[in-house]
């Protein structure tokens, strides 16, 4: 089956990446650089770039709510505002992706154990193959684990996660992540 890919950039808001309340995330500068590079690659390849913003980060008019300026969407790129951890709950994200005929998502953003995990898992149950970029998501330390451990754990447990017809592959940003390799494993 032919795959049509989109880059889904989740919760790369100033208040999460830089803080002060919800961040800064682990290796924030490297994360921004990685995601910025992937956004540029996607745009060059005419791969749609879609953004998700979480209302829990800060009031809508606050600087912390805004998408990080180095990752900001271009005019015409889709921005979905969500209230739940799951980017698909009570949003039009799935409808927008279906209208665009997307069936493969490359996912990056914040925070690993919450919004990234939820989006990755839910996407597979909605019929999308997912490429999670190993070095394209981050979080902060929790009471139980350091951020680096959380990211490593999720990269390990999400790689190969299979939901009937669709699954997750974790790949490094230096790989050709916009070219899905899922069908080679079916």
From TrEMBL:
Coiled-coil stretches are: none
**Ranges for the Isochorismatase-like domain?**
5-147
User: Which domain of life does the protein's organism represent?
Assistant: Bacteria
**Which InterPro entries does this one have?**
Isochorismatase-like_dom, Isochorismatase-like_hydrls, Isochorismatase-like_sf
**Keywords attached to this entry:** Hydrolase
Q: Which GO terms label this protein's molecular function in UniProt?
A: hydrolase activity
Matching Pfam families, A to Z?
Isochorismatase
Q: Which PANTHER family match?
A: ISOCHORISMATASE, PEROXYUREIDOACRYLATE/UREIDOACRYLATE AMIDOHYDROLASE-RELATED
Family under the similarity heading: Belongs to the isochorismatase family.
What name does UniProt use for this protein?
A: Cysteine hydrolase
What species was this sequence derived from?
Brevibacillus fluminis
